[in-house]
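Please go through this protein, sequence plus structure tokens, and consider how the sequence yields the tokens. Keep your notes short.
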Amino acid sequence: MKNQTKKTLYIFALITLLTFSINAQYNEYEDIPITRDEMVRRAELKYIKNTILQTYRYYEDHVVHNYETIDGNVTVVRGDLTIRGQVEGDVVVIYGDIIIESDAEIMGNITTIGGNIEQIESSTVRGNQIETSPRNVFRNIGYSKNYKHDYENNYYDSWHYSYQYQYSTLPIWPLEDQFLVRYNRVQGLFLGLEFPKSIANKYNIISLHGFGGYGFEEKAWRYQFGIDRYFFNRTSYRFEIGANVHDLTDTRDDWLITPLENSLASFLIHEDFQDFYRRQGYEVHISQNWSIYLKGTFAYRNDHYNSVSKNVDWALFGGDKKFRINPVIDKGNMRSLYGELYLDTRNNHETPRRGWYGKLSMEMSNSDLRSDFYFNQYILELRHYVTISRNERLDLRLKLGSAEGDLPVQKLFELGGISTLRGFDFKEYAGDRLLLANIEYNLSPSIFSRDFFLFDDIRLILFSDIGSAWFSNENSKFTEGFGILKFNSLKSDIGVAFSNWDGTVRLNIAKRMDTNKDPMVLTFRIAKPF
């Protein structure tokens, strides 16, 4: 753990030195005292909001023809951009004009710095249109004594502007096929190929998506293949019907840790934080968007559940440490009706700095559906990301869960450890009732009046978690069972984290508040907890 932290600090130091060296380079433009590459970097940092997509750069006049679809962002420097086709991302033109001709479609924002925007009425721009002066964008660059302060002000400028890209409930941006490489104690090494769902352009009314691969220690092929067809409006009021078939080594723990992070933990440090089971069957669903941010889904699911065993006990490091036994689940055929209301206005999926995320779901399974299980389960999760100032942010999450009937093991709520109650043991509490609240206060060192040398690139996060999972009385309704929970019986912890500037790499130190006996819990993460 100490070596990992030292390596992170060295990386931060190297990035800081490189940043200062870039800033000191000779200026090839007389009007702005920075290099061309630095000018492009600054403009893209400020105006390209969908950083998941690839950015295509051109350094002269450029035309997107009517038969072209650019599957990313576009930056043009010292030239005009003419758009006749489709651009899936954001557009930035530095010292040039943007001409949007008939039938052109731009899914993101368009920005010209030192130029003008000309749009034909029959074209479509889904984002905002900005014309701005170079001095407004590159002000103080080359003259400021606090370069990093300017850098963070540009990055955390969203509270000044209303044209930022918002995340959505739809996979609007095209995603490339990718290889899957995973490692866990059930499958061992898993290799596969994924072709994700996306809305490529207005002419693609049918989407094929899924993945397939082989677990070498499980000695089994696993797959999921889906097809969806949309009707009416392509994005804002999209109505969709679809279906998928699957045979999965599945987990309910993706909300705790991503498959990539869990694979690295399993392979490197002999810690597998996910529990698995086999789920084989199919699903049919319909969904309706009321905007790109609000979506409702209704589905019929038919799945056969089986337990799976631990097949691997090897990791690169960890010595004689053993993986946990993979828990047994309740076997049987589960036929259920599932409904969901999903809201997402975050500015970014992986590292949100502003916006809302909300999901309300309900699943019903009973003998009327010829199911082997009898339960109703309800889950509500709300997250809010609030930019207080350029150097401060609050991240908040509230999650509630309840159930009626006999909830199977694979549907139980579990709390404790990473991403939940971070000062407690992993999955220390379980039940058919859940209450969890998390708060994080993110603070940049730039808020202080002095520099901290190598620590200037390390953000400080103060956090607290509170909640519990417990079993209610038999035959309780889903609205009952919360009255027995008193405030002083809730489990809580406090902690501090040190992270890189976007929060994707962090060291957490947490202490539970119900006892002084247990030591502090240290965890190293490469993803935000929520």
Observations:
- The chain has five helices and 31 strands.
- Residues 7-12, 14-31, 141-165 have pLDDT under 50 and may be disordered.
- The first helix runs from residue 2 to 23.
